[in-house]
């Protein structure tokens, strides 16, 4: 079973932020803003950044923008944080192309979601991941989020894929603790909690860390949960996780996408964010005020 003690067991670090993609007021990608935001997140405790993921609005950024973002953030953070680039699409060939481009742009790894919409059976899901891993020049993090893709990466499929030398990690948004524990018990895959409410819970069963959307707003607090856990202070870790729960609920469980809520908070904080791209819409005033109240309650303590 994977423990949480060494760098090799945390191939992409421990506290990863699923970073938003900043845009200008005109809706163009804001590379200077991305550099500034990335540098702040790392300074505040994130040792890894996931770019071009769900929170990074990957469905509405171009292939060129994706590569430019990776290159810009690499320039900003150097070797102070790992960079994992989202490359998942519904098309295996396109995913391979994006994985190769991400590696060339400076990514340390790629995040590959299960193919969506077409709902391929498990044999096809496994073949998709193997094709991408075979072609990629960097390690692969599988992304299990059936609520968005419509397709689960079943535990048995994960266990088989763990034998591939480039498949090293999983971002877990499956909401299946039993399935997750089964894979942890039978493989050396590094699991990262992809749902902020599971940061501490997954650590307790051997996860390597988290890929956090809430860390866009409170990177230091998310890092502190895992700091306490690693130090053996489980009571302190629990207290920090529970104190974050109202903000987690407001950002991730109140009906608005995490991209929308993260950008609303970053805008209030004066950090680079900008608008969301259609079909997303910005948070309304009432929602933004509610988010800010939860943020202030957490950070005032």
TrEMBL record:
UniProt-listed Enzyme Commission number(s): 4.3.3.7
Superkingdom per UniProt: Bacteria
Pathway: Amino-acid biosynthesis; L-lysine biosynthesis via DAP pathway; (S)-tetrahydrodipicolinate from L-aspartate: step 3/4
Keyword Amino-acid biosynthesis: yes
Keywords tagged on the record: Amino-acid biosynthesis, Cytoplasm, Diaminopimelate biosynthesis, Lyase, Lysine biosynthesis, Schiff base
HAMAP family tied to this protein: DapA (MF_00418)
Functional summary from the UniProt entry: Catalyzes the condensation of (S)-aspartate-beta-semialdehyde [(S)-ASA] and pyruvate to 4-hydroxy-tetrahydrodipicolinate (HTPA).
Protein name as catalogued: 4-hydroxy-tetrahydrodipicolinate synthase
Organism: Streptomyces filipinensis
